[in-house]
C-alpha cells in the first residue's frame, strides 16, 4: 500500500478495508473473525453505543496530556498493542514492525507466546523493555521455560492468558480450511494468487512459524503444528498454575481474559498486579459478555487494588475514553494495529497508533479534559437503546 493510500485511511475501519484488499481471504478471516455466530464480536462494537460522554466547556484545555503510568512506567498514551499470535501471516516479521511502531509512539507492546518472531530476536531488537504473553500449556515445563526466556530477553511485564482452555469455534477458519503452518486450500491458492504483493512476500520469506514453540513441537512428535498447539491448550489450568508462574516471575504479572468479578478475587489471591478484562476479541466464547458491560462490576470488585486494563472491540479514541471514564486504567488492542501492518508494514501500524492518539487528543479537547484524571466523575452516561426516551443515567464514577 502506498503512502498516499495510507494517508487516505481516516480511521481504523479504513485501515481494515486496506488490509482486506491486500490479504488472501483465509488470512483476513483468521485475523478478523470471531467464534460461533460471532455474536460477541458484534457485541464488542455495539457495547460502545450504549454509552455516551458528557462534555464540559470553557475549561481551558489548551494543553492536553494523555500519558498514563502502568506498572511503574509512564507511557505516552493510555492504549497499547495486545498479543496476536502468528502475526507474520499478514507481513513477514510483523512483530518487529509492531514493536517498533509501539516504541515510536511510546505505548506498550505485548509479544504473543505463539509469535512468528522469537522472544530473543525481539529482545535483541528492542529499544526498551516490553510485555510477554504466556499460555499455560499442558506440558507446564514448556511454559515455565518461556517465562525464563522472556526474563532473560529483557521483557518486563508478563501477561498470562487464561481464556483459552480450548480453542474457540471459528467457523470462518473451518470454512476456509485454514491450517497451520499456513497452506492454502485449492480454492485458497487461486485467491492468494490474486494478492500479488502478499504472495511475493510469502514466497520470499516462507510461511510463518511459531518460533518460540518449534523445538518443543519437534520433540513432541506431533503430526502437525496445529495438532501440537491444540493439544497443548489445557482446560485443566487452575489458579494454582498462576501462583506457580507468580513464583517464577519477578516483574509485574497480569492475567488476561477476566470477565467475572469473582475472578478478580482469585487474581488478587494469586498475586497478580493487573488484569485484562477481555473476551479475546470475540474469538473464544461466541456468547461471551462484552468487556464494557463487565467492566463496572469488575472495577468495583478490584477496588483499586489491581491495574485494570480492557480490550476487545476498541476502534476509536472515544471508545478508549469511555473505558477510562468508567475507571479502566488502560486499553489494549489486537486487530487495529494488525490491520495496519497487513496494509503497509510498520508504516501501517504507526498510522493506526497516530490515528488513535489524535482521536484521544481531540476527544479530550471536546470533552474539556486536559488530563485523563478529568474523566472521573459523571462524564459517562448509559443510554442503552431500550432506554431511549428515559433520562440517561450517569454511571458511577471510578474515583481516581
Ligand atoms: C489474538 N489474541 C490473542 N491473545 C493472546 O493472549 N494470545 C494470542 O496469541 C492471541 N492471538 C490472537 C491472534 C489474532 C489474529 C487476534 C485478532 C487476537 C487476542 C488479543 O490479544 C485481544 O484480546 C483481542 O484481539 C482484542 O480484541 P480486538 O482489539 O482485536 O477487537
Description:
This protein is an alpha/beta fold and 400 residues long. The protein has a single domain (3-47, 68-367), classed as Aldolase class I (TIM Barrel), CATH 3.20.20. Helices cover 44% and strands 12% of the residues. An eight-stranded parallel β-sheet has the order 4-11-10-9-8-7-6-5. Helix 2 packs antiparallel against helix 17 (335-367), helix 5 packs parallel to helix 17 and helix 16 crosses helix 17 (335-367). The model has no long low-confidence stretch (mean pLDDT 93). The structure holds ligand FNR. Ligand FNR binds at residues 31, 44, 82-85, 112-114, 133, 161, 256, 278, 280-281, 283, 311-314, 333-335.
Describe the protein's topology.
Layout: H1 3-8, H2 12-22, H3 25-32, H4 39-46, E1 51-53, E2 68-70, E3 73-75, E4 79-81, H5 94-105, E5 110-111, H6 119-125, E6 131-135, H7 140-152, E7 157-161, H8 171-175, H9 186-194, H10 196-205, H11 214-220, H12 225-232, H13 239-248, E8 253-258, H14 261-269, E9 274-277, H15 291-302, E10 307-310, H16 317-326, E11 330-333, H17 335-367, E12 380-382, E13 393-394
Bound molecules: ligand FNR.
In short:
The protein is α/β, with parallel strands linked by helices and 400 residues long. The chain has helices spanning 3-8, 12-22, 25-32, 39-46, 94-105, 119-125, 140-152, 171-175, 186-194, 196-205, 214-220, 225-232, 239-248, 261-269, 291-302, 317-326, 335-367, and strands spanning 51-53, 68-70, 73-75, 79-81, 110-111, 131-135, 157-161, 253-258, 274-277, 307-310, 330-333, 380-382, 393-394. Helix 15 (291-302) links the parallel strand 9 and strand 10 (307-310).
Amino acid at each position: 500500500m502506498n503512502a498516499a493510500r495510507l494517508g487516505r485511511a481516516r480511521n481504523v475501519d479504513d485501515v481494515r478495508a486496506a488490509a482486506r484488499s491486500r490479504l488472501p481471504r483465509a488470512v483476513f478471516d483468521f485475523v478478523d473473525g470471531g467464534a460461533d455466530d460471532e455474536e460477541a464480536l458484534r457485541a464488542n462494537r455495539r457495547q460502545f453505543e450504549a454509552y455516551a460522554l458528557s462534555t464540559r466547556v470553557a475549561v481551558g484545555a489548551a494543553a492536553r496530556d494523555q500519558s498514563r503510568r502502568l506498572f511503574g512506567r509512564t507511557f505516552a498514551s493510555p492504549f497499547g498493542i495486545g498479543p496476536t499470535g502468528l502475526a507474520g501471516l499478514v507481513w513477514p516479521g510483523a512483530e518487529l514492525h509492531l514493536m517498533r511502531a509501539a516504541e515510536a509512539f511510546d505505548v506498550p507492546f505485548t509479544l504473543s507466546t505463539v509469535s512468528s518472531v522469537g522472544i530473543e530476536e525481539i529482545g535483541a531488537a528492542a529499544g526498551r523493555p516490553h510485555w510477554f504473553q504466556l499460555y499455560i500449556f499442558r506440558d507446564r515445563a514448556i511454559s515455565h521455560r518461556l517465562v525464563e526466556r522472556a526474563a532473560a530477553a529483557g521483557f518486563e511485564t508478563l501477561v498470562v492468558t487464561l481464556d483459552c482452555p480450548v480453542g474457540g469455534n471459528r467457523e470462518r477458519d473451518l470454512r476456509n480450511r485454514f491450517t497451520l503452518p499456513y497452506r492454502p486450500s485449492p480454492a485458497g491458492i487461486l485467491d492468494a494468487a490474486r494478492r500479488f504483493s502478499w504472495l511475493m512476500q510469502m514466497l520470499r520469506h516462507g510461511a510463518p512459524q511459531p518460533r518460540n514453540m518449534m523445538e518443543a513441537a519437534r520433540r513432541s512428535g506431533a503430526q502437525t503444528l496445529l495438532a501440537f498447539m491444540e493439544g497443548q491448550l489445557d482446560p485443566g489450568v487452575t489458579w494454582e498454575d498462576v501462583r506457580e508462574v507468580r513464583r517464577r516471575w519477578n516483574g509485574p504479572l497480569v492475567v488476561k481474559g477476566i470477565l467475572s468479578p469473582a475472578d478478580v478475587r482469585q487474581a488478587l489471591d494469586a498475586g497478580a498486579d493487573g488484569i485484562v478484562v477481555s473476551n479475546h476479541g470475540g474469538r473464544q466464547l461466541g456468547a461471551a459478555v462484552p468487556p464494557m458491560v463487565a467492566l463496572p462490576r469488575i472495577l468495583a470488585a478490584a477496588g483499586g487494588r489491581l491495574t485494570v486494563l480492557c480490550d476487545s472491540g476498541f476502534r476509536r479514541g472515544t471508545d478508549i475514553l469511555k473505558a477510562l471514564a468508567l475507571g479502566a486504567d488502560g486499553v489494549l488492542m489486537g486487530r487495529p494495529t494488525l490491520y495496519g501492518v497487513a496494509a503497509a508494514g510498520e508504516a501501517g501500524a504507526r498510522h493506526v497508533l497516530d490515528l488513535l492518539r489524535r482521536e484521544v487528543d481531540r476527544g479530550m479537547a471536546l470533552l474539556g479534559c486536559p488530563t485523563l484524571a478529568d474523566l472521573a466523575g459523571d462524564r459517562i452516561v448509559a443510554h442503552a437503546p431500550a432506554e431511549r426516551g428515559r433520562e440517561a443515567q450517569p454511571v458511577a464514577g471510578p474515583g481516581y
